[in-house]
Amino acid sequence: MSQTVHITAVVTVAADHAAAAEHAFAACIVSSRKEEACRQYVVSRDIEKTGRLVVSEVWTSEAGFEAHLASPHFKALGEALGKLDAQLDIMKVRPLDEAADAV
């Protein structure tokens, strides 16, 4: 049985690049949600700091997540964010409720 992969990422761009970053994410959101291994792919805009986005992803397996990273739509997002000088903080996380369920 494979382990579910949870990703939380904080992406920050200059305020004047916020609309371009959101546009770049839009295509990736649609395509990512169509991937077989995708259980959740949500991108949220920080309402207090323009240019900061939070991404929450859940993948059915490490292999599914790796396939996502190799996908054309994810590569296009990476290129677009690179051109916007985005700062990325990407974390693989494990929800505490999974640990609580095991108790």
UniProtKB/TrEMBL annotation:
<dbReference type="InterPro" id="IPR050744">
    <property type="entry name" value="AI-2_Isomerase_LsrG"/>
</dbReference>
<feature type="domain" description="ABM">
    <location>
        <begin position="5"/>
        <end position="94"/>
    </location>
</feature>
<dbReference type="InterPro" id="IPR007138">
    <property type="entry name" value="ABM_dom"/>
</dbReference>
<dbReference type="InterPro" id="IPR011008">
    <property type="entry name" value="Dimeric_a/b-barrel"/>
</dbReference>
<protein>
    <recommendedName>
        <fullName>ABM domain-containing protein</fullName>
    </recommendedName>
</protein>
<dbReference type="Pfam" id="PF03992">
    <property type="entry name" value="ABM"/>
</dbReference>
